[in-house]
């Protein structure tokens, strides 16, 4: 009876299932099938033996990754950057969404959204080129202006201390439009009767924001934060690689797990160690999302992911 009911549902919802099929196929092909490669983290890979024919070497690859002295540095950088991105980007996006909702008229809101959204579509390759032309020591716009007003130029590409601030600013600029649209959609879905009731009670604009808008944004904030926390140990390779490149002087302040894995693979051709670093990254991400989701469930299970 259950099987008959199952096939009845398949036939009934066949159109929806066909629409879902490409996404399912995509994740199966690019997310689940590649998981077989995890075994490379426990093998001494050679091209003659391939993935399945190479000799097992236990935990040697993982041990070498930690003994290299880079594990703590890249883990710390990845986590701290992502925490900064999550906090600062969300605050800016919420602030901008509320500002557009409360201040902007219909056309002003649409034009501003379009302008803010534009950086999201710009490739990190282009962003890296823009940054280079702005920050270059000899011909960069910033240093040209500084020299023009009689100040000393700043050697930004040889000074690691500047880059945490630069990367946070660039990340906020590029993601502001996308996040603002999501939060603005959440705000516009709030029941207008709540605002009308607040106005009748004499609430001013700031009180409406604090007592109506922000509390109703909590579910959206929690879901987006949970999704972001799941990637807290996964750096944005496109951003870090195109902004920093292979500038070894900046690695101490900018190297994340993703760039470390890529550079290790390219320079040493050590597939086993690169795979071990990737497995380590995945385990950290999985553990983090499970812990955070558990904490959210303890506080309010209706707002947890699962």
Can you put this structure into words, describing what you see?
The protein contains 15 helices and two strands. It has 306 residues and is mainly α. Strands 1-2 form a two-stranded antiparallel ribbon. The longest helix is centred in the first third of the chain and has 33 residues, at 71-103. The chain is globular, with a radius of gyration of 24 Å.
Strand order, largest beta sheet: 1-2
Order of helices and strands: HHEHEHHHHHHHHHHHH
Poorly predicted sequence stretches spanning 5 or more consecutive residues = none
Taking the sheet with the most strands, its summary is: 2 strands, antiparallel
Rg (CA only):
24 Å
Beta-strand share of residues: under 5%
The tally of beta strands, per DSSP, is 2
Q: What overall form do the CA principal axes indicate?
A: globular
Number of helices: 15
Query: Span from first to last CA?
Result: 29 Å
Explain briefly what this protein structure is:
This protein has helices at about 1-10, 15-30, 50-55, 60-65, 70-105, 105-115, 125-135, 140-150, 165-190, 190-200, 205-230, 235-245, 250-255, 255-270, 270-300; strands spanning about 45, 55. By secondary structure, it is mostly helical.
Task: Record keyword descriptors for this entry.
306 residues; mainly alpha; two-stranded antiparallel ribbon; 72% helix; globular
What's the helix and strand layout?
Layout lengths: L1 H11 L1 H19 L10 E2 L5 H4 L1 E2 L3 H8 L3 H33 L2 H12 L6 H12 L5 H8 L14 H26 L3 H9 L4 H25 L7 H8 L6 H4 L2 H12 L2 H30 L6
Antiparallel strand pairs: 1-2
Helix pairs in contact: 4-15, 5-9, 5-11, 6-9, 7-12, 11-15, 14-15
């Amino acid at each position: 009876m259950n099987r008959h009911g199952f096939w009845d549902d398949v036939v009934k919802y066949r159109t929806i299932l066909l629409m879902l099929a490409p996404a399912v196929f995509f994740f199966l092909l690019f997310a689940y099938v590649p998981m077989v490669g995890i075994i490379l983290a426990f093998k001494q890979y050679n091209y003659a033996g391939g993935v399945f024919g190479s000799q097992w070497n236990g935990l040697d690859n993982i041990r070498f990754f930690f003994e290299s002295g880079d594990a703590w540095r890249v883990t710390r950088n990845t986590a701290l950057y992502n925490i900064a991105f999550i906090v600062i980007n969300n605050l800016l996006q919420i602030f901008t969404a509320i500002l557009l909702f409360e201040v902007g008229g219909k056309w002003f809101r649409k034009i501003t959204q379009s302008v803010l959204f534009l950086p999201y579509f710009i490739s990190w390759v282009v962003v890296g080129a823009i940054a280079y032309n702005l920050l270059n020591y000899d011909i960069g716009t910033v240093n040209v202006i500084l020299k023009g007003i009689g100040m000393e130029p700043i050697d930004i590409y040889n000074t690691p201390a500047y880059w945490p601030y630069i990367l946070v600013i660039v990340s906020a600029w590029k993601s502001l439009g996308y996040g603002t649209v999501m939060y603005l959609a959440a705000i516009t879905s709030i029941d207008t009767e709540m605002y009308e009731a607040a106005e009748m009670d004499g609430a001013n604009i700031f009180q409406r924001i604090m007592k109506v808008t922000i509390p109703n944004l909590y579910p959206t904030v929690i879901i987006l934060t949970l999704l972001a926390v799941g990637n807290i140990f996964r750096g944005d390779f496109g951003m870090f690689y195109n902004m920093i490149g292979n500038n070894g002087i900046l690695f101490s302040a900018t190297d994340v797990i993703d760039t470390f894995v890529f550079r290790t693979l390219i320079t040493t051709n050590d597939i086993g160690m690169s795979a071990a670093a990737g497995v380590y990254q995945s385990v950290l991400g999985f553990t983090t999302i499970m812990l955070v989701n558990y904490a959210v469930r303890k506080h309010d299970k209706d707002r947890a992911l699962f």
